[in-house]
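Many introductory courses stop at the sequence. We go one step further.
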Amino acid sequence: MPHSPSQPISAYLAAAPHARALGRLDLGFGRAATIWRNRDAHIRYDAPQGHVLSFYLRGGGGTRRVDPGVGRQPMRGWQGAFCLMPQGQSSEWDITDSFDFIHLYLPDEELRRAFAETFDRDARQLQLADLPYASAPRLSAPFLALAGAIRDGDPLGGETAMQALTVEILAAAGPYRLPVGHKLAGGLSPQKLRLIADYTEAHLDGPIRLRDLAALADLSEFHLQRSFRASSGVSPHRWVLHRRINRAKRLILAGEPLAQIATACGFDSQSHLTRGFRTATGVTPGQYRAAQAPLTQGTFS
């Protein structure tokens, strides 16, 4: 059984004697992707924090999963192998030959938010199984695109690849059914979540107050906070910030002036937009726009 999460897998690798990060891309809200090279190691991830999607870019035949969870025979990797390591799931690995791999790190609350938004389901229904090794041809292209984005420092390409991988994993892990006799206690109904989401989208250009969201759900502010987080994976504030940033991305790519974008997305100023955007994406609005420029130029060349 999974344990309470301790530290992220990236921290275990950073402490490994021969592991080396070849490149990293900050994807915002605690999400990140790193290309690693490792060799000659025995490493144990003890109830790690956050979910990790792993893909072997080069080599892998000298890497084996050896903990009791995989049965009597150790499982050996290969170039192109995919692993899913859910939060809290311990694992143990023997590494002999040098190999390169990519890790996509997704905090639990962010993956649950993506699940709730994408599938209109309660975030508590998300259940991910430990997957030591799998052949996943549909994931190869977005993983390779993510690797390219890391090497190029391309936040837009990294975000696009991350979204594709997240949706594929969430769709493949279903159907999501609660155990027989188990009911979700508390939380918000899908109808109330949609009501709050629609209200949020319609008022992104101004202040959105917790008391107004609570009134929509006919709850106190305290109970709205708790119920919303249970059903969506994140706090109302984080949910609203995601929606503001998503609108800002669309307007940035449409070429709108940053001052106007700040107003349209409910930020007090352009500097407020810049701070919030960097938190959400790892880059400034200007850097995000610059990442789009080569794609636009290539379209007309």
